[in-house]
Each structure stands twice: as structure tokens, then as C-alpha cells.
Amino acid sequence: MSSSAVKEIDALIRDVAAAAKLPAKSRMGDIRPTVASLASLAYENGLLPEALDELIDLVVTPSHLDQASRNAIVRNLYPVSRVSRDIAIRVIGALGHGALKPSLNIQVALLKWLIMIHHVLETPAVFAQAYSVLFNLLNTAAIRPNLCHLLALITRRKHVRPFRIQALLNLSRQTANDPYLIGLLRVYKDYYPEIILGELVRGRASAFKHPDISWKERLQEVQEAYALQAERNSQAVLDGFRVNRPTGRGRGNRVVPAVHTSHATENSVTLEEVENITGFVQNIDRIELPNQLVAVLADPLLQKLLLLRPNAEAYQRAANWLNSVLQNVIDGDADEAVLWEVLDVVKEFVVQCKSIPPVILGFFATFFQQWNGSGQHGSILQILSFTPLVGFQELYERILQPLELAILDNTPGSQEEILSLYTNILRHWTAILQSSDPVPAHANTSITALIRHTGRLGLTLLQTSPTESVNIAIIEFYEQAIHLVNDDSLKYYIRIELPPSELIYTFLFSSSVATMSRLCGILACYKKGFEMAMSTKARNDGSNRIDALSYDRAYVNLYNGYLMDICNCFWRSRAFSDADTNSHGCLMPRPTVADLTAYVSSVDKAFSLPSLLTLSYSPVLCFQSIRSVRDLEDAAIGSSDSAIRTRHAGPVTQNSLSKLTVAGGIQLSWQDYRIEVLRSLAEKSLGGIAELLKNTMTVLKNSMDATPRARAKMSI
């Protein structure tokens, strides 16, 4: 169960509990939609013990909650684990007559619930201890049928006493031989055949059918899913020096066999005997390999053994088994459930070992040709996240392109999944290169092709789903790419691949200051890589190191143009200008710039188009800019005996700062103001803009390094 589902269920329970304390007319709104949402979430995810405990209290305690809502809650009490003794006792205590008892209809629902969960009780003996209480409630006709059913389930020989037999006989005569009572009498007769019932039980006994088979099946699904999740979570905290012993219902049918050793000798040790790291280390040379070595896919201890004692035959046997199972899937001799279970186990193995068995890649190359993208493809994407560093073009044509054709369905979700896959592949390839010596000759070509392809995918995403989540996903990919530029070794071997121009300017004019800042941070990092390459003397020795000949002049000018455009927008008040060397004018067509310039002048002659994208007027930076001035004014007020007579109304301009000083406001130069804005952004983890401007304009870098933080002063 996800943490978000747990939080949502808890919040809904609190809402229902609060509403239950108030009469319906006193509530702010109708509680029934909230109850319906709670019931739906309980059905989908099940209930943790704490939530189940709170809902039982809500149902059995007197309140203003209507009967329909209580019934809906009881019908969806799906416990994800065993039900505690306390809950069973509280439900039993709620049965019978009394002003504080729930209505008889609710009692019937609770009895049905006890019948359906009696096999998952934490302490089954609680029913035996409460047998007398339950038996004495048989006089209540409304709950008698379900009460007889529950008693029939829990009755044992010790419960069958003469006085109870007599009580049942008397009650059955009073109720015209109620079939449910006679059904309970037949259970008694099974323990004491000498009971003479005669014609009383002939053809009149109830068969006590299960109240709701579909409810029982759903309960099993919920509990198995929770048990599987708990098992996976527990594996993350185990020391990994014990054999993985699958637990829980249905785990015996697992496709991949568990570790089992049957050919041990007196001098050997089986993996099943290892209990801790000490036992593993002391006996590593004597440990006997298990019968089926494919268990290495699911057992961390066997994985460690084969890592420390490599055995080519063992891995070949595991590969042969995998190949056989997967071939059966392709040939149609195995159902889809087998495929996803095998891939789920392979995923766990790949995540642990950080490598994909070659047989899996071969299977994917064939499988993707006929796959329609249905099923649990999350496991496939996680497996492919650890794709080996090979030629990207071959990898794409053989595996990734068929995968894209199968998964991509023109929805943003599928495109984001593929983008996330490429980010994970780039992360894995970076890790491989950081541990490689020497760096493979094909590494630069493969990574450059991957980044280029992902850039095109990012552009498609920005057109189909221009949302902030998509922006973040694309930015995260390029932030992963800059690890190659920052790495002290890899920066000499991996060429910088710039994002597409359209993508850069889309992010530059993003509605999110975080996206804009992160883009500037990426471009600032690239500048260091270009400078390093330009300063490295070109060599003709066949080396694959990056040097002055790695980038042609047009490519470097393209990058410099991005920097010039950003400086023109934020610092020089020349937005969209293409007059400077290498500037692109933000790719804005000149007729469009002329039209926008005329429009701005027609609205207000005090403004110009280039000024509207400066730090003071930019739609995403204007608030941060005036906020930095407010902070300076607050600091000045706090450190001065006299109050500032005038605060800046904003937006800030060079002229407005001059007038502010005369009017009794803070003394702040235009240069100090802009530097203060950049510093303020950096303090809020938005330092990408300042980093780019500093790295691009030497004058600004010197000013920021030399100028202490601005201190607002009172004008005298």
C-alpha cells in the first residue's frame, strides 16, 4: 500500500469521525460522498490495523452517523493483515440489545464480517473464549441466522454440553424448527452422535453458505498484495546473508525456484545452513551449490556466493533455464502471468547486480517485435535502466525503437515513461564510465547519440504536454548529462551535446523560475566544458580525448549565442536583439519583434519591449526582485533608530532608485540592486541565473566577488 493511500485513508477517517459527532443538520456538508470515497479506497488498498481499529470504533460506538454510511463502512472492512484479538472482542461486545448497541441491521453486517474474517484472526482462541456470550444471543431473532453460522464455524467438542443441546432443542421448538438452529444442532450431533434428534433435523438444516464469495476473494487479493509488498520491503533491510525463504500464500507457486540443496556431503555446507556473515565467510569454500542455479535470480545469498566464487557453468545453467521459459512465452506455450512473474524476479536481480543477463536482451529484441505494450511494463523499464554501454544506434534499432512503438500511445504518460528510462540509462552509463579504465572508445558516440535522441523526444513532449512536470523531467535528464562535464576524468572524453534551440528558449520563457534557473545552471556548466576543450592542445595521436578540434566554430558560436541572448534579457535590457555578435534574438522573427515593440509603446510609452524581460519586469522574476528590496528595507528599519520615510513601490529602475534616495528611502545603486537580486535568488536555491551571468560577463563576476552584500542606508 502506498504512503499516499495510507494518508488519504487516515484523512477521510478523521473527516467521517468528526462528522459523526454532529447531527446531520449541523454539519457543513453531506458526509455520504466522504464515506463513499473511504469505502472505495478501503476496497482498493485494504486497511492497516490502525485504520481498521478506528473504523470499528466508529461503527460500534453511538454517534450521529447514519445507518447507510455504517453499512458501507462495514462492507469494506478489508484488513491487510491478521485481525487483532481486541477488534474481535469489541465487535462481539457490540452484539445484543441495549441503548448503546448498534442497530440490529448493523449487528447482522458485523456478524457477516466476523464469519468472513474468522480465518485471519491473530488469536483464533478469542471466539472460543467468547462462545458463551455468542450462544446466549441466540434468542435475538434478527441476528440468529448469522450467529448460528458463526457458532457452527467455531464449535468444538468442548463446547457441546447437555444444557446447550437442551437450550437449542427448546429454542427450535419455539421457532417452528428454525433451519439455522437445526443446522447448528447437526454440528453438535457430529460431535455427539448419540444425540437423538429424530425427524427434527431431516431436510430442514441450513447449509451455512459463505455470505459473500466475491468479498472473500477480494480479501485474499488485498492480503496477498500487502504480504508481497511487505516481503519486498523487508528484503531491503535484511543483511543478505540468509537464504531467501518465500512466505505468504501462493508463494509456493513461484516460477523461479527457491534455493534447495539435496546433494550435500559430510564435508560440505549448504546455503540453507548459513545464518549470518560469519558462517558465510568461514564456509565459503565448502558451500555446495543448490540443485537449481536459476535461484540466483531471486536469492541475494546465492548471488554473493557466485560473485565471490565465479562459476561459468552455473551462470550458463541459469541462462539456459531463462531462455527456455522465455522461449515458451514467445511460442505461446506459457501464459502471460508466467512472463510477468519471471520479469519481476529478473528485475530484482538486475537492480541488485546492476547488470542485465544477455539472454534477457536477446528476449526483448524478439518480444518487442510482437508486443502491443499491454501488461506490467514497469518491470521492463526498470530492467532496461541497466542497459550495458553499447553502440546506441544498434541498441535503438534492436530494442529501444520497438519498445517505443509498443509503449508510446500519444499520451504524455507514456512519453514521460520513455524519457525517465533514458534518464536512468544515462545515469547507469555514467556510473559505468566512472569505474572504467580506460574509457571505451565508443562511449562518446553512444552517449552523444542518446542525448540527441532524448532531446528530440523532449521537444515532442513540450508540444503534446506543456506542463511543469514534463519540464522537470526534461531538465532532470540534462542535469544528469552535466555530471559528465563535472567529472574530473570523463570531461576529457565525452563531448558536450547541447539541447535543441527550441527547447532552450521554451525553458527560458517558462512560467517557473525554478525551471529557468535550472536551465541557466546547465548552460553555465557547459561553459566550463567548452573552455576546457578550447584550452587543450589538439593532438593527432588517435586519442579519443576532447580537445580544441572537437567542436567546430559554428557549434561554439551557437552556444555563445544562447549566453548572449540570456544576458541581453536579464542584464543588458536588450531582449530579442540580434545586433550583438553571435546573438540569436531568442529565435524571434524580426517582423514579430517589430510588432511587439509597437504594441508595447501603444499601451504605455514609458515602457519598451526589451525592458519587460529584465530582473525587475520579468513575469517570473519581478516578485523575487522586489522581495529582495523589501528585505533590504526591513533590515534597514531594524538596524536604524529612524524609520525609512518612503518604501519603493516597484518595479525597480535606475531612475526610480535615484528618486527613492531623494524621497527618504534606502540608498541603493542600480548595480548593487541587481547584484542583490542575484544573491537573493542564489540563497533560495535559484542560483543558476547568477551562475550563468557571472560566468559570461567578467565585469559582473568581479563586481559580485568584490562587492560586499548590500546594506541599505537611510538617506539624510
From TrEMBL:
It is found in: Chromosome, Centromere; Nucleus. Belongs to the CENP-I/CTF3 family. SUPFAM superfamilies: ARM repeat. InterPro entries: ARM-type_fold, CENP-I. The lineage of its organism: Eukaryota, Fungi, Dikarya, Ascomycota, Pezizomycotina. Pfam families: CENP-I. This is Mis6 domain-containing protein. GO terms for cellular component: inner kinetochore; nucleus. Keywords: Centromere, Chromosome, Nucleus. One of its GO terms (biological process) is CENP-A containing chromatin assembly. It comes from Hypocrea atroviridis (strain ATCC 20476 / IMI 206040). Its main location: nucleus.
